[in-house]
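tmp note - Large ribosomal subunit protein bL9
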Amino acid sequence: MKIILTHEVSGLGAAGDVVDVKDGYARNYLVPRGFAIRWTKGGEKDVAQIRRARKIHEIATIEQANEIKARLEGVKVRLAVRSGEAGRLFGSVTPADLASAIKSAGGPEVDKRRIELGAPIKSLGSHQVSVRLHPEVAAKLGIEVVSA
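out:
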């Protein structure tokens, strides 16, 4: 099935790309979550608009991405969350929580879709997350989750 990506999808492409994927993947995952729309001749007009929006939000050069990476890696992020007695969290830490914690810690504004959690963060302590700034640049960020 031919689709137009509306958001960046790891391993598949960036917003505005026209890609061919299996029918079930498009029908059951990408389209319902808003990551893609079905390709049509009329939808081809949307590609230019999506690409213009992507250019506004994306980091243009590797130098700019490395500069933001240096700023991110210099920030110490502490996130206060509710937890039980054994250090287990009530729920888990989401990329949106991390994006707001980075900004409040004095770091640069990061889009929540660029934050990649290796596994769900469900306990107190130090954790590592990756922030994909550019296709070739990713920042490793240390997060300390503390009890509120």
